[in-house]
Amino acid sequence: QVQLQESGGGSVQSGGSLKLSCAASGDTRCMAWFRQAPGKERGLVARIYRGGGSTYYADSVKGRFTISLDSAKTTVYLQMNSLKPEDTAMYYCAADPACAGNWYYGGQGTQVTVSS
Prior knowledge:
- The protein is mainly β.
- Helices cover 0% and strands 51% of the residues.
- The protein is built from no helices and ten strands.
- The strands form two sheets. A six-stranded mixed β-sheet has the order 2-10-9-4-5-6, with no helix packed on it. It has a four-stranded antiparallel β-sheet with strand order 1-3-8-7, with no helix packed on it.
- The model has no long low-confidence stretch (mean pLDDT 94).
């Protein structure tokens, strides 16, 4: 089973940047970041395929967020720039061993708060 541990959340002002990290142990072909704001459903923010590095972004974060892997492909990052108050949420790292849409959330999540 994949083990996941997120880090890097915090509080920033609108327009600021944060970088989230997720250390993963175990075999998984796809990794992603999801987020959930109070009163809202958890939604996909960005996804990356560990094999070829192809990525997907939600429309709301395109051009502002970048998902990437380290050279060992054991840590996935989410660089968040030009943050907006609506980006405020709990962010979760997730793994999908078969890239079949069956996501596994193993960590506690990390809080991102953006003030205006």
